[in-house]
Amino acid sequence: MKTIERDVVVIGAGPSGLTAARELRRAGHTVAVLEARDRVGGRTHTDVIDGAVLEVGGQWVSPDQTALKALLEELGLETYSRYRDGESVYIGADGTARRYTGEWFPVGEHTRAEMERLTELLDRLVEEAGPEAPWEHPLARELDSESFASWLRRHSNDEEACNNIGLFIAGGMLTKPAHSFSALQAVLMAATAGSFSNLVDENFILDKRVVGGMQEVSKRMAAELGDDVFLNAPVRTLRWSGGTDDDGASVTAVSEALTVHARRCIVAVPPNLYSRISYDPPLPRLQHQMHQHQSLGLVIKVHAVYARPFWRAAGLSGTGFGAGSIVQEVYDNTNHGDARGTLVGFVSDEKADAMFELPPEQRRQRILESIAAFLGPEALTPEVYYESDWASEEWTRGAYASSYDLGGLSRYGRHQHTPVGPIHWSCSDIAAEGYQHVDGAVRMGRRTAQTISSILAPPPGTASGPGSLFTKVTQ
């Protein structure tokens, strides 16, 4: 087996790991990036399915994602706006599809008032808690001990309002039932977007896409790193010694492809995969417990490609919401410059459970019928149909990002960045701003690289060039 030596070994060639490696090399340190898959990009993947280019993984860029936007510009990648002209469609509790424009669903006066009031309450909590350390909020333990579903119904007696507000975090972001995560976790999710009001504004959260696909971010960073990126190299064992600030600390990463001896290690995979690695010596008790309280959700990302974007001719934007529908969200996802029309829909949490119990053809029919309820019968006959199932991916096992169970965030959140000896953690799942998004992955990559670079003495005569991104990154 091949053995190499580097200053830092990075496990995972997603946006966070590649950002960290790129920054460390710019600072004069040697790196090796080991990736289990046969590709780079992690939970971003732009693939060609039956002749159609599909964004299988993460894809959107919002105005507040300044770290990602700066990186896109540096890498020479352009963005384009998501199509949103025309009316949207809302399917309410009675199953009726209603067309509407503006920010609010076409619901009854009482339901709308309750949705506005719940939004104001959440915005207030977000402002108080912030994304950095919500576990320090005076009511953190109380909020973390109550499910988001229970919190909503404690503050409102309008079931439709509760379901609609819950949709934006449970189905739209954490992809878990609202009874399975805490109100504090919901506050953190909203805080990472700046406010709950931002989170419910699809024109803000789902603003732009990357020309060529989001995976291009990872591909271009990997191209810069060249032969220092090793694919098909899942790390099975990490042997480590020394403390976090110990100049004599060392780590050995053993993969099926090669062994890397290094001074520091960055584990840049989601927390649910930390345990796929054997640590010698074992991680501290706290880490073992913390990782067992973090898990990813479940979502089917549905792609349907048509000869033309038929919904536009009908005056529809392609956007639809329905908390009780199988497909709870649908959007126009047509590629830049493509004459064909593409829709993307999301089937989350328990609805995804129900769909996966069906045979593939029956599942496809049920899902397309749900999309057709928003946009009409032409939705039933796409030229290309594909389901992204990240939960079945060996090196992902869920979507979109890790979150804590009840009580976990206030109990363990303050420890999730803490290194173990020479081992550091870096992924969007533990980011503050940009949590769950590529922007958070980039921020964490820079932050982790900056921490390690401050520990490792740069090689003699080496200095960061004027183009280095080693600047303070707000987390």
TrEMBL record:
Top-level division of the source organism's lineage: Bacteria
Instruction: Keyword check for Oxidoreductase, yes or no.
Output: yes
What's the name of the protein?
Answer: FAD-dependent oxidoreductase
Report domain Amine oxidase positions: 16-452
**InterPro entries xrefs:** Amino_oxidase, FAD/NAD-bd_sf, Flavin_amine_oxidase, Flavin_MAO
Q: Per the record, which residues fall in region Disordered?
A: 454-475
- Amino acids binding FAD: S16, E35, A36, V235
Family (UniProt): Belongs to the flavin monoamine oxidase family.
Cofactor(s) for this UniProt protein: FAD
Which Pfam family is one of those matched by this entry?
Amino_oxidase
Kindly indicate whether the keyword Oxidoreductase belongs to this entry: yes
Q: Name one GO molecular function term.
A: oxidoreductase activity
Residues annotated as binding substrate are: F346
Keywords associated with the record:
Oxidoreductase
Output the Gene3D superfamilies linked to this UniProt entry. Answer: FAD/NAD(P)-binding domain
